[in-house]
Amino acid sequence: MAQGYLSSSNEMQSLEDVGNQYVKILMMRSFFQDTSMDKFGHIESFKMHDLIHDLAMSVARSDCYLDTERKGIVGKPMHVAFDNGTNCSLDVFNVCKLRTIIVTWAIELITEKLKYLRALDVSFSPITELPKSIVEVITKLINLRELNIEECKAFEEMLPAGLGKLTSLQCLSNFVVGDYEKGTTGRLNELKELNNIRGRFCINNLGWVRDVASESHETNLRSKKYIEDLSLLWGAERYGSGECEIKNSDSLMLLDNLCPHQNVRELSVNGFPGVKFSDWVISLTNIVSIKLYSLPNCEHLPPLERLPCLKDLEIFDMKKLERIGDNKVGNENEIHVSVPPFPRLSSLTITRCPKLTYMPPFPHVQNLVLSSCRVKAILETCMVKHETSSFCPLSALERLQLDEVTEIEGMAEGWMKNLTSLQSLSLRQLSTVEVVLPQLQHLPSQLKQLEISFDSDKLHLWKEENHKCDTQLKVEKIDPKLLTSQTFTYTEIDSSKG
C-alpha cells in the first residue's frame, strides 16, 4: 500500500480495506497461516511458510532495511527500522523515497524532505522533549497515514499545533490536549478534519479544555465512522478551584459534543466531572463494552439496559451514583416487563458505588463482581420475572464475587437457589457472615471454586454452621471434590490490623 501498488475503483473504499481483502485472499490460499484476530475480528498477525517467507524477503530485499540485521544497505529502501541506541542517520538513504520509519531514540531524523512518508512510529521513546524544528516538521508530513506515539514521553502532555492538517491520518494512537499557555500546543478542534481515524482512539487531558463551546463543537467525532474503540480521559485539572467550578458546569456540554459515530463498539470514560451523563450513549446500538471510571459527581446514568449489543459493563469509583436507567416501578419482586433489559450483558462489574440503590435487572449475566457497594438493591432487581424470558434470573451466572458489600442481610431468603449454573463463588470481607452461611446449602453441585473471608471474631459462627452439616468443612449438597485445599479457600481476617 505504501508503495502505491493498491488501487480501488470505489472511491468510498480506503486502501487499507483493499489491502485487508488481499490479505484474506492470501489466507484462503494458505499463503498465510496461524492468523491472530483482535477483539473486532481484524487481522493482527499471521505466519507464513518458510518458502513464502524466503520469496518475500528476496522480492523486498532492496525495499526494506532493518538495522538489527547489521547488514549493508542494498538498493534504495522505502521502509527502515533502527535499533535502540543506534547511531541513526538517513544520509545514506534516498529520503524522498522513504515511506516508513520506525525509530526510538533519534527522532531528530525527521525532516521536511520526508514528504512522502506514510508511517512514523516513535512509540515507547524515552525522549522527553522534542526540538521545535521537529514539531514543525511533523505537522508538514501531509501524506502521513499512521502516527504511533503510544508511551512516547515527548507527547505525554501535548501534541503540536497544526496536527489537524494531516487529513490522511488513519492511525493516531492518542490525541493529547495540552497547556494552552504554550502557543505550540494543539487544541481539541484539531480533530475536526481527521475523519479517517480508525480502530482505537484515545483523547487525553479533556480537563484542560478551556473554550468548551467552540472547541468541542468542532471536534466532529460523529463523522469519524471508522473509530471502533473510543477512550475519553479527563485527567488532572490544571486550574484553580474557581476555574474548576466553571469547567464542571461546562462538562456536560463537552461530553455532549464528543458524541461518537454509532459504529463505536467499545467506550471508556475516565474522570468526567459532571453530575449527569450524556444521553447519546444509548444511541450506540453497536456498543459491546462500556467502562466508566472515577466519575466523582455523576448521580444518574442513562438507561443502558436498552443497548441491544452490550456485553460488558464496568462501573468503578462513582461514589455519588444513585441509579442506572429508569426508576423501578412497584415494590415487589414480581415485576413483569415486556422487553427484557440488558439482553446480551454477560459480564458486570460494579466497584466503589456505595449510593447505588437501583439498577435494572440483568438476567443473562455470567460473570458478576460487586465490590464496596450496596448489594441488596442490585441483586433483588435480578429476581424480576420477564414475559419474554424462558429461564430464571441469574440462572446463567457462572462466577459471583462479592467484596465488602453492605446490606446483604436484607437479601431475600434462599436467593442463592437461582444460581443453578454457578461454578465459582467468592465472598470476601463479609461483616454479616452469619446471614450468608445458611444460604450456602443452596449452591449447585457443579461448583468448582469457593473462597470465603471474614473477620476473625466471626469464626465461631463458621464452626457452628459446619457442625450442623454432615460434611467435613462445609454445607451439605456441595460436591465432595470441593472439600480439598486446592478448590476451597478460607481466609481469616485479623480485624486488629485494620
UniProtKB/TrEMBL annotation:
Q: InterPro entries given for it?
A: LRR_dom_sf, LRR_R13L1-DRL21, WHD_DRP
Q: Please name the Gene3D superfamilies in this protein's record.
A: Ribonuclease Inhibitor
> Which residue range or ranges hold the R13L1/DRL21-like LRR repeat region domain?
188-318
SUPFAM superfamilies assigned: L domain-like
**So which residues are the signal peptide here?**
none
* Disease resistance protein winged helix domain boundaries: 1-56
Which UniProt keywords are given for this protein, alphabetically ordered?
Answer: Repeat
* Pfam families the UniProt entry points to: LRR_R13L1-DRL21, WHD_DRP
Q: What is this protein called?
A: Uncharacterized protein
